[in-house]
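Honest question from a wet-lab person: if I give you the sequences of every part of a complex, can you actually get the arrangement of the whole thing, not just the pieces? Trying it with mine:
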Amino acid sequence: MKTMFWKENKLFLIDQTRLPDEFTYFECKTYKDVIHAIKTMKVRGAPAIGVAAAFGMALAELAGENLEKTANEIKSTRPTAVNLFWAVDRVTNSNSALEEALKMYGEDVKTNKAIGKNGSVIIDDGDTILTHCNAGALACVEYGTALGVVRAAAEDGKRINVICDETRPLCQGARLSVWEMQQEGIPVRLIVDSSAGYLMQKGEVDKVVIGADRVAKGGVANKIGSLMVALAAKRFNVPFYVAAPKSTFDYENSIYDVEIEERDSREVLYFGDCRVAPEETEVKNPAFDIVPSDIISGIITEDGILKPL
Amino acid sequence: MKTMFWKENKLFLIDQTRLPDEFTYFECKTYKDVIHAIKTMKVRGAPAIGVAAAFGMALAELAGENLEKTANEIKSTRPTAVNLFWAVDRVTNSNSALEEALKMYGEDVKTNKAIGKNGSVIIDDGDTILTHCNAGALACVEYGTALGVVRAAAEDGKRINVICDETRPLCQGARLSVWEMQQEGIPVRLIVDSSAGYLMQKGEVDKVVIGADRVAKGGVANKIGSLMVALAAKRFNVPFYVAAPKSTFDYENSIYDVEIEERDSREVLYFGDCRVAPEETEVKNPAFDIVPSDIISGIITEDGILKPL
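Yes, you can. This is the full assembly:
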């Protein structure tokens, strides 16, 4: 399964807002379609956003658009995942946007397989691994980062159980990670986000592996809730790993200077089409939080397991 | 607003599963109706469960039922909140179940007002208070424990902002606490459970006040997710208080020996009528977790602020 593919000068993206009930591809004919897909989270996950953005630049190039203007527009879709900026800059500095995008597309799979191989080392036979949000195939072109580690461990013959946090508000854990593990035949259980601490308290989690939207000085920005999972892991001595490609690393900024995206209140007030609180309720809906470096056991990359910045 | 009242030998309970969209009373003509209401969480919250159980015993007495058998049936509805056992035993040891139930009904309000008064001392003007689940009027006969502290502070003229975690899976925060604060005219914002840590990381929370289902040796059992909120509060030096009547105290057992109720998977798979993961998905749905004593700043009771057991 590929999260996206390029065909006849168009980009096709799995519409992740419709999973797991419908498996359909969203067709991007223009870079504006790609912008729409990123903003509405039809495509999400730092590595996938990066590659989709690169193809957005390719679509703009093919249409003869002003590439500098397009680059700025694409960069302004979402502020936190650094891969978006990395990918657009890389394409901008290349001779051909399409060639570069296709190159990045191919690299993504290789990178994730290397992350998986490096990560499998820390996984023991029989481990129960808790993950938050979806850092799976659907967050990349394929295979995944955190779930890539799970896949690699399973391919190495280790018996793994996975626990997925549902990951409110958009439930990428319940909708995407559970679905990926079910497709893969890896035993998986679903919990609400606030159960993670209790399962660690009971000794039912051996390791935590999550993805990253940005690795910078002082910590890692990742899906809202990652911080609370990490604090529980620290308290109950559960190793806490982040799996992310080097393209997610930002060596220049403090993680505390990174803009944390605030998203629409509707995501919290509703659950699918079901409303849970009065429409006029005031909401705070930050999309990410920051896991401080001192509570991260290691960052699993394509180059090995690194210390946090 | 009263969460329950006794009229013409029947118990009327606000059906909390229908709030905030519908405000209706569920009529209990028999103790079996009370059992149904407790199991389905039409009535919930440790103090409210206790008083409802006492009225259940009164209904059984009026109908000439075997009270020992009824007591056992009522006690087996939910295992974690100790008030249920406390209330049934108290009624069993009295001369008249109805008189005792009515006495407990009256005491509940006085107790909560005393908790509020004692708790208001730790609240400063301008504080933002985060609460989890609903330890409000709806969890008691009226006024509330954790939200009783908020009400008392507001009555003392302090300007308070409240942040409510939605409290998956049944969203008592989003549906009940937000609604109570809106009715009261106290500024309130709603967040997903996993945002609590981030808001503390940003310094946007001054105090946490939650309720309790049981206070015992070593800690407090409360709604799932309380533990993760407490760990975040510890990390970011936010005072973390539990507000609970002495009827919630269990002096005999270790909190780690208390049975933690596991509830139906449907609560996690669905959100109202909206399904979020494939029907056949395996789920773990513990209803409570344990906040260890060492990360609790104090327990606000009708007798003052106490150290955890």
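Two things worth pointing out. The radius of gyration of chain B is 18 Å. Chain B has a mean pLDDT of 96.
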